[in-house]
Structure formats: structure tokens, C-alpha cells
Amino acid sequence: MTRTHCPYCALQCAMHVESDGAGGHTTRPAPFPTSRGGLCRKGWSAGALLAAPDRLTTPLMRPAKDAPLRPVGWDTALDHVAGRLAALRAERGPDAVAVFGGGGLTNEKSYLLGKFARVALATSQIDYNGRFCMSSAAAAGLRAFGIDRGLPFPVTDLAESDAVLLAGANVAETMPPLMGHLSAPRLIVVDPRRSATAERALAVGGLHLAPRPGTDLALALGILHAVRAEGGLAHGYIEERTTGFDAAWRHCAGWWPERAELTTGVPAADIRAAARILAGAGRAHILTGRGSEQHANGTDTVSAWINLALALGLPGRPGSGYGCLTGQGNGQGGREHGQKADQLPGYRRIDDPAARRHVASVWGIDPGSLPGPGRSASELIDALGTADGPGALLLFGSNPVVSAPGAGRVSPRLAALDLLVVADFVLSETAELADVVLPVTQWAEEDGTMTNLEGRILRRRRAVAPPEGVRSDLEVLHGLAVRLGRSGAEFPADPGTVLAELRAASAGGAADYSGATPERLAAEEALHWPCPDGAGTPRLFLDGFTHPDGRARFTAVDHRDTAEAPDADYPLVATTGRVLAHYQSGAQTRRVPELAAAEPEAFVEVHPDTAAHSGLVDGQWARVVSRRGATEARVRATPGARSDTVFLPFHFAAGQRANLITDTALDPVSRMPEFKACAVRLEPRERAGSGERP
Ligand SMILES: Nc1nc2c(c(=O)[nH]1)N[C@H]1C(S)=C(S)[C@@H](COP(=O)(O)OP(=O)(O)OC[C@H]3O[C@@H](n4cnc5c(=O)[nH]c(N)nc54)[C@H](O)[C@@H]3O)O[C@H]1N2
Ligand SMILES: Nc1nc2c(c(=O)[nH]1)N[C@H]1C(S)=C(S)[C@@H](COP(=O)(O)OP(=O)(O)OC[C@H]3O[C@@H](n4cnc5c(=O)[nH]c(N)nc54)[C@H](O)[C@@H]3O)O[C@H]1N2
Ligand code: SF4
Ligand SMILES: [Mo]
């Protein structure tokens, strides 16, 4: 029996992995304050992942562009990849090769992947799927506080709060054990849908505010307006601990609740009720999730929620705060160690000369040889295989054929590449298109560290032996780097050695891991970064914010409409998100029989009147059509839904991909795509009502 953490989300529930006596493995919860001894259904069934019948155990390669993938030996695969990369680079320069990472990778993998791109390939072209996930909240957090840590306080603080506002987070499905910390506070849930979390709030006397998708910014301004009218501003705190209130207020002054109601559809009385709850709470928290953030105005929207939190005096006040709920298993650590286009380890900026000098000295290279910032994820995908874009892509830990916005454009871009290399443990929809597939170890088969939503550094421990034939991501990077002429010692395959180097590279940076020694990590799981001296920082901002003047900054923001407005042809707004049983692109959970059976197919949640208007009834297959494409989903008639809005989960493949319809518009600051709002129409699918799956 080995104690480790869940393969999936950022809550990183602790679990024991043990043999089931029949060659398989089971999981059960282990004590851990964050998960309170709980696991969700995905955690309980995670043992089945280790036994996936189509687990990859040998490298695959296409002998010619259109030929099928065939098993080959590791040396053949790695020699081929390194040879092609070197040739492309010689022909077209280092930026001809691109790298795409993921927020599920351990800290060690994220770090080595960033170093591999900058040192072994010398390319600026690296980004990762966290761009699709956390980037707007990260950008807004940096703007306001000078640092970006999802929750700047432990999850257990929430249980002591009097009121918690959850904006665009459906934690009852996306982090179920977190609900255990939310039974005491009054809940205000902001979600266009009557989500499972909204139901829970209503059941215990809380509030559900259901704005039109993409209008949270106006709602936050409306609530702030009402807070001021209620006399709820924290004047002393605003004076002593912040700057910029007056400029921010100038945009807010016109958003009295009745005007906010016109834009958002949330009744003015509910806006005032929310303001009263927050202003009257001794301790309160505001938390944002992807519903507020995944918009072309996502950064400003998060800034508006942070402004509200600052006006109430919450951040840095003991027992209160603002936080963003990170998403992927290592959503936090994955954004600190350099797989982001503009970043070096320790959350340093790649365009900062001092940061370049520090990291180059740890890497033993000339700072001048480090590339500059590259393209953001969505822009990188658009550039693949174009005249001045990369001709090769190495992909670790993402499945963009399913999860990238406007997914219909992704496969043609991948097909235009000279070389697509995917490292995965299953043949994901993206791996299916690769020229070379490298089979890697997964979660319980490897050691490493993960940083959960509280900035808490955890140990992922090896609990089972990997199947014969697979290698770890670190071994893959090591093998490629050596073939590209770097020394093996520069790219260690041992996670402990990588952690030691990561600690040195992060030292003195915002996300300082230098005190995260193996001994310290082994002792207890309560080490929150920054931890320069090994003591850790569970709560940030108690004495001051990270900006040089120690103050938090209000940001002057105003409402903007979504990139795409509904019209006569596309009269509805579609928003997208998650269900309990599936994880992300579904590459993993669609392979777990229990989870696949629970949610076997795509659905579209739609108000019964809206369905009827489109000639549809509950249970019928519909086509959901946007300007970019169409997807198929079974109608789930939902009386609690807004009549102008439909919802689709994005976990399904092929013709059921929600991302076939999503908008590729980007937030100007974070480059976050607008996953959460696009204009659509519904129509019956051809074989409507037959009950057949497409
Ligand atoms: N079961 C499960 N859990 C997961 C994951 C998973 O795939 N499956 N993924 C993990 C990851 S990576 C992430 S990022 C997190 C995400 O966790 P959440 O942010 O909780 O997940 P979502 O379902 O994407 O979005 C939350 C809610 O936003 C609402 N929403 C849509 N548009 C808007 C809007 O304009 N405003 C507001 N206020 N709300 C809106 C949706 O209706 C939805 O209920 O979950 C993590 N946990
Ligand atoms: N419409 C819509 N689209 C969305 C979202 C949305 O709300 N709506 N949410 C966005 C968000 S928040 C996110 S985080 C993304 C996530 O979307 P993806 O980036 O596609 O995430 P996953 O499905 O987790 O893909 C991970 C892949 O890597 C593999 N993998 C897992 N661990 C490892 C590892 O350690 N090493 C290697 N080499 N491979 C590994 C898995 O088997 C899987 O194939 O989707 C985004 N897309
Ligand atoms: S809540 Fe997240 S970490 Fe916990 S068991 Fe479920 S998927 Fe795993
Ligand atoms: Mo995410």
C-alpha cells in the first residue's frame, strides 16, 4: 500500500493505492486536510486507469505520412525524432520546432520541459494547456497582488468563513470534497446554470445569481455599487492597503443594480441581497472558476471580482480572502517552472534581464543564448505548419484535438506539420494523428511533486511498477537532449535530481521552492510556496502584498460584450464546462468503464421551451451549430436553465466535441480563449429521435 495523490484535479486528494489481489489496483482515501478523507467518483475509480486495456507500451511510428502507426523500438523512435528536429532547425532556425506542455505534468516534468525547449532546442515556441485554464486569473492576480498563487490561503480556512461567493465554479462536480469545507458559510453561487453547486447553495438558504454568460464583469460592478450603497466599503483597509480605488470606482459609479440587471439578467434585488451578505459577513471569501475566467474579457472580469474583494477588505485579512480555484492536478506548479511562453522557473519573466542571468547561471549557459517570449497556446496552434510557423511539435500532457477552442482548425494545422510527436500513455485523439507516439509512465507509476490549488507542494509517489516498455517523460527528454548534443547531466532523468535543480533555479523567484527538500517534503504535506527556508507560507499577504509598495492595486475595468453576439441565425448563447464523471478531454476517464457508463455521450442542457422552439424534445439528438462548425449532443431538457443559454460538456470526442463550435477569440492580456460563450442555434439531427449514437 502506498500513499500518493489523485491523478486528476487540483484538489489532489490523498489516496492509498493497493493491489486488489487479482493483478489490478484499487484506491481509497487517505487522511489529508484538504480532501477531509474524501475522494470523488473519479478518484475512487482511478485504479482502472492503470489497467486500461489499450495502454501504450511501445513507441509507434508512421513509416510514411499517410501510413498507419507501427510499433518500433525506443532507439529507432528517438533517433528519428532527434534527427528530424536537428534537420528542421538547421534548415529553418530554432523556432521551427515547438513544444506544448500540460498542467497535469509534475513540477519536475514542467521544469525539464521548459529547459529542454530553451536549452536543447533553443526555441521560443513553447506554451501549454494552462493557457486555456488559469491564465486570466493569473494575469489578474499578478496585476492586483503582484503574485499569482491560486488560493493564497489553505482550503480549510473556508470552513470558518461566514460567506463565500463562488463565481463560475461548479465545485460540487469539479472538486466534490471541497464542498465539505463549504457547509458552514452562506454561499452565493454565480452561474448561468442552476448547477449542482447552485442547487446546494439554494438548499441551505444561499443565493444563486444566474447572469447571461460573459456578463460577470457587469454583475461584479453592480454588487460593488450596492456594497457602497449599503455602507459596506472597508474604508480603512482601502486607505492603508490598496491603491487605485477612485479610478476603479469611476467605472463602477454608473452600474447601479437596476442597470446591472439589464445587462446580466440578475434581478437588482438579488444583487443587493448578495451585497448585504458580503458586507455583513465578519469573514468572507470570493472565489473564481473557469465560468468567470474563460472569456475574451476574462482578465478584466477577474479584476472586477478582485476589486470587489478589495473594497470589502478581504485579501490578506486573516480568515478572509480572494482566490482562484486552479484546475489541473498540477495547475499551480505547472505554471511556475517555465512551460509558459513568457516564463522562466520560479515564476520569473523571460524578458527580465536579472531573471535570465540567474537561470542561465543555474543552467550553465550564456544568458544571451536564451530565447525570448514565444506564442501563446492558441496562437501557437494557429501558426503550426504555416510558412513562418513551427514545422514540428512535441506534445506532452494535452489533447488539443478535443480541448482546444475552435477544434475544427486543429487537425488541419497538425496535419500540416512535418513532424508531430506525442508522449502519452494512451492513444488520445491527438496521439492518433502523430507521426511518432512515445509511451510514458503515468501517475502511480512514477515519483515527483505536484503543487495543489493552495500552493501546497505534495509528493506523487510511485505505487506500482510501470508496464514493460514504457519510459517516463523525464527519460524521454533525457534521451532526446543527449541525441541533440547536450550532456546527460544537463537533463537528468531522475526526478530527485531534477527537483534539486528546480529548487536552485527557483531560488529568489516569486515561486521560490528552494526549501522544498526531499526531507521536508517527506516529513509532512504542509509546505506551501514560497518556502526559501523550508518553513512555507500557508497564508500570503498578511503583512503586505507583493508589489514594491506592499499595497494591492484596484484595476479600472468596465464591462465589454462577448466577442460574438447572438443574432437571427445564431440566437442562443452556448457555454461549456464539466461533469463529475469525466476529466478534461476525456482521454483518461472515457477509458474507465464505470465513468464511461455514467456519462456515455455528449448532451446539451436546454430549457424545455427553447428546445421546443427548435423542434426538439428531451432525449433527442440535436446539432448545435455555430459559425465555426457543428457538434452533436443529446437534448437534456432542463427547466432551471436560462432560456437564452445552452450548456455542453467538452469531454467527448469526434463529432461530439463541444470545441467544434467554440470561439477562438482571445483575451487581450492573458490570451485565454472564450470557451464560455459563443452564438449558436439548435436543430434536430437527421436521425432525430432514433436514439442512435453518432
Ligand atoms: N469532474 C471534473 N472535475 C474537474 C475537471 C474536469 O474536467 N472534470 N477539470 C479540472 C480543471 S482543469 C478545471 S480548470 C476545473 C474547472 O472547474 P470549474 O470552473 O468549476 O468548471 P467548469 O464546468 O468549466 O465551469 C464552472 C461553471 O461555470 C459556468 N459558467 C459558464 N459560463 C459562465 C459565465 O459567463 N459566468 C459564470 N459566472 N459562470 C459561467 C458553467 O455553467 C459551469 O457550471 O475543474 C477541475 N476539476
Ligand atoms: N469547451 C471547453 N474547452 C476547454 C475547457 C472548457 O471549459 N470548455 N477547459 C479548458 C481547460 S480549463 C483545460 S485545463 C484544458 C484541458 O484539456 P487537455 O489539455 O486536453 O487536458 P487532458 O484531457 O487532461 O489531456 C491530457 C493528455 O495528456 C495525457 N497525460 C496525462 N498525464 C500525463 C503525463 O504526465 N505525461 C504525458 N506525456 N501525458 C500525460 C492524458 O492521457 C491526456 O491524453 O481544456 C480546455 N478546454
Ligand atoms: S476531487 Fe479531484 S483530486 Fe479529489 S478525487 Fe476527485 S478528481 Fe481526484
Ligand atoms: Mo483547467
Report on the architecture of this protein:
This is Assimilatory nitrate reductase catalytic subunit. With 694 residues, this protein is of the alpha/beta class. It folds into 4 domains: 2-51, N-terminal domain of TfIIb (Single Sheet), CATH 2.20.25.90; 60-93 and 102-123 and 334-512, 3-Layer(aba) Sandwich (Rossmann fold), CATH 3.40.50; 135-329, Dimethylsulfoxide Reductase, domain 2 (3-Layer(aba) Sandwich), CATH 3.40.228.10; 572-684, Barwin-like endoglucanases (Beta Barrel), CATH 2.40.40. 29% of the residues lie in helices and 17% in strands. A 7-stranded mixed beta sheet has the order 5-4-18-17-16-6-7, with helices on one face. Strand 14 (343-344) and strand 15 form a beta hairpin. Helix 8 packs antiparallel against helix 11 (257-264), helix 8 (216-229) crosses helix 12 (268-280) and helix 15 (353-363) packs antiparallel against helix 20. One ligand MGD binds next to helix 17, strand 17 and strand 23. The site of molybdenum atom has 3 residues, from loops.
Class of the largest domain in CATH?
A: Alpha Beta
Spatially, the strands of the biggest sheet line up as: 5-4-18-17-16-6-7
Overall residue-averaged pLDDT value: 97
Cα end-to-end separation: 42 Å
Quantity of strands, as a count: 28
Q: pLDDT under 50 segments (min length 5)?
A: 688-694
CATH topology-level name of the largest domain: Rossmann fold
- Ligand inventory: ligand MGD, iron/sulfur cluster, molybdenum atom
Task: Give the percentage of residues in beta strands.
Answer: 15-25%
- Per CATH, the architecture of the largest domain is 3-Layer(aba) Sandwich
How does the helix and strand content classify structurally? alpha/beta
What about the largest sheet?
A: 7 strands, mixed
- Put simply, the count of helices is 23
Number of domains: 4
Shape: globular
GO molecular function, one term: metal ion binding
Keywords: 4Fe-4S, Iron, Iron-sulfur, Metal-binding
Pfam family, one: Molybdopterin
Protein name: Assimilatory nitrate reductase catalytic subunit
